[in-house]
Amino acid sequence: MQLTVSPAHQKLRDRVLRATGFDLLPSDDVAAAFLAGQSAGDPVAERFVAQTYHGEMGPERARELLDEALRVGVDHVPDAPASMRDLFAEFETIPDWVDPELIEAGAAVWRRWGYSLGAVGNAGTMDTYTEGSLAVPLSLSGGYAGKSALHRYLETTRWWLEVCRPGAVLTPGSRAREVSLKVRVMHVSIRARVAEHPEWDAAAHGLPISQSEMMLTLLGGSVGPAFGLYSLGFLTSAAEMRAVLHFNRYLGHLVGCRVDEMYPQTVADGIRLLYYFDATRKHDSGALGPELVEGFVPSFAPGPESRGLNRARANLHLRLQAGYTRLFMLPWNRKRYRLPSGIPGVAVLVGRAPLIAAVEVARRISPAVDRWWQRGSMNRWRRWHAWHLGQGEERFDASKALRR
Q: Which residues form the ER-bound oxygenase mpaB/mpaB'/Rubber oxygenase catalytic domain (predicted)?
C-alpha cells in the first residue's frame, strides 16, 4: 500500500511554503503514521466482537449483555467475558491528557454550530467518496446508500446531540457514553464483515474503517467545520478551535481511535493532515461514489404522502443540504455527481450569515447571549431530528448483515 502526493498538490505546497513559510504537508513521521494507520484497527473491541457478536454467543445475547453492562456496570455482570471487561476498562479510563474545561469548551462550540455542524460535515464526508477505502464499506453496509441514507444520518445526529450535552461525555453512565460505545462496537462489526468481503481490496486499501479514516472524521468535526462555517457567520476563535480539537480527541478515545499517535496537537497540524488526505487521493471508488452521494441529498426530499407545512419544511432542508454541498464539496469533485441545485440553499445560507455573525459578536460580550445562542441552536437541531425520526428508533446495530 502506498500514498503519493499529486504533482498539483506538491506544486501548491511549494508555492505556499516559499511565500509564507507554512508547510501544507505534514512531517515525514506523521505521513508514515497516517500510512500505517490505514491498516490499523481497534484490537480490544475487535476481540470482544469476535468472541460475542460474531462468536458462539451470537448477536442477540451479545447485545443484551452489552446493554446490561452499560446499565449496571461490567463488574456487576457475572457472564461478562474477559474481552468485554478489557473493552470497558479501556473505554472507562480517562486519559491523562484530558482537560475537562477544554472538553466543555469544545462541546459548547458544537452546541453553537448545531444543525450546521451536521450539514457541513455531510458535505465534507461526501467529498471523500472519491476513495474506494471509504466508499466500499459504506456501500456494502448500506448505511448511506439508497433509502437508508437519511436514517443512518439520524443515527449519527443522535450521537452528536448526546455527546455535546454539557458534561455528558465525562459523566459515567451517560447516554452520550452509551451511544459512543455502541458506535465503536458497530464500526468493529462492520470492519470485520467488510474485510472478509470479496469486494474489499486489502492490498490497495488496508483495513476498512481504519485508524487513519476514523481520525479524519474527527478533523471533520473540528478543524474542517471551524474554517468552513466561519464564512457563514460562525466566528469561531483560535482558542475555541483548539478546544473543539481537544473535544474531538476525547470523542476519538471513546469510539476506539488512537488519538495519541498522529492526532494533531494544533489547528495547523489538522490543516496539514486534511491537505495530505486530499493530496494523496486515489479516485478509485468507481460507481460507488455516485451511488452514495446521489442517494444522500435527495433522501431529504418530501415523500409522496407529505403535505402542506411538512412538505415545505422537507423542501427547505433539501435545499439547505444541497446548498451546503455546493459550498463545501470541492467543485471538481461535486461536478462528478448529479445533485439538486444548491443555489436556493446557498442564497439562504449566505443571506443569514450577517445575522449569525452579529449574534456571534454579541455572545462574546454577554454570557447570557452565549447561553441563549447555545440553547436555541440545540433546540432547533433536536426539533429537526425528532421531526424526521418520527416513530423510528436509532439502533446502532452491530449485528446487521452486509447488503450484498
A: 109-341
pLDDT at 344 > cutoff 80: yes
Residue pair 216/128 in contact (Cβ under 8 Å)? The answer is yes
Residue 229 within a domain: yes
Cβ atoms of 275 and 224 within 8 Å: the answer is: no
pLDDT at 404: 67
Domain span holding position 339 = 25-41+101-389
Give burial (CB, 10 Å; 0-12/13-18/19+) of 282.
Answer: middle
Interhelix angle 175-195/82-92, rounded to 10 degrees, is 130
Residue 339 belongs to some domain of the structure: yes
* Residues 6+ away with beta carbon under 8 Å from 159: 176, 179, 180, 183
Please compute the mean of the pLDDT values over residues 367-389 and round it to a whole number.
95
Instruction: State the average pLDDT over residues 116-135.
Output: 93
With the C-alpha atoms ordered 215, 217, 222, 226, is the resulting torsion angle positive or negative?
A: positive
% pLDDT > 90, the chain: 83
Domain count, the chain: 1
Tell me how far the alpha carbon of residue 342 is from its chain's centroid. 22
Kindly report the average pLDDT of the chain as a whole number.
93
Whole-angstrom CA distances from 292 to 128, 202, 206, 275 are: 11, 21, 21, 23
pTM exceeds cut of 0.90:
yes
Q: Does 141 map to a domain?
A: yes
Using the structure block, give the residue that is written with the C-alpha cell 464483515: 193
